Amino acid sequence: MEYRRLGTSGLKLSEISLGSWLTYGSRTEAESARACIEKAYELGVNHFDCAVVYGTKPHDAEVFLGDVLRQFPRTSYTVTSKLFWKIGPSTYDQGLSRKHLFERVEMSLQSMKLDYIDVYYAHRYDPETDLEETLRAFDDLVAQGKILYYGFSEWTAAQWERAFSIIDKRGLRRPVVSQPIYNMLNRYIEKEVMPVCAREGVGQVVFSPLAQGVLTGKYKPGQPIPPGTRAADEKVSHFIQRFTNDQELLAKVQKLGPVAEGLGLTVGQLALAWVLNRPEVTAALVGATRPEQVEENVKAAGVKLSADLLKEIDAILA
Q1: Selected catalytic residue, list 24, 54, 150, 219
Q2: What is the reported pTM?
Q3: Superfamily, domain 3-213+271-304
Q4: Per-residue pLDDT tens over the stretch 209-253
């Protein structure tokens, strides 16, 4: 496993990190989920991502993840969570108000049975809460030691700019991490978000680096959806239909096969290595329902891609 510094912070995260979205505490059977987390840790993964809304009901994934990680030394891993989405009937059960932040962090700590959470995210931007209120709440939570660092997920460059303007003016602690979607098929952050964050010392921990599994090459044009895959699960298939319904796109992904084989990689490993080729990216979050998937994914760590190879990939996907 290779490790990278998270922006200008002191944290070093494994290039391949493990996410919990749509898996732990919901879709994946408990024994398999536990095996995935344990295999990841065994292979050097030291960063485990979660959120309040992950799982069948709020905090379920946190409870499960905390239970599995408890067998390992607390100093050997980082764990995250996020809040924003509505998770209850109260008007206070959503958003980024000071009240919701303080209450939800306490619930996350209780769910994972932790004294502190390494990184806590604003899961989205909240237009209904004054940004300074949110930033001061994060600053206070860090000062209290309940969270060590904080960051934002899927914020625009303009939202990042506005946050830093307030932070610098008020002398508040700075966020250290951005968590956007990023993969070969979705590169929107390259134009504005990456430059702003790089300038401000913020690292990128990207989700969906395999585009919901499309970039593994398992969905083939003109062929039925493979059983047991995410696209075959009616509960979550809507997240991926825009890709699996695009036969031209699926055909392009198939053309990545020979490129990957030339490097001794699978298409999925090539896609992960492509994401990690960007120096702005600290880690790629992967999901897994079987330990074998974790083993395959971590093989992308440390893989270097030449400039000519990157041009070839661009030409295929253009």
Answers
A1: 54
A2: 0.89
A3: NADP-dependent oxidoreductase domain (3.20.20.100)
A4: 999 888 988 878 777 766 666 655 566 556 666 777 678 888 899
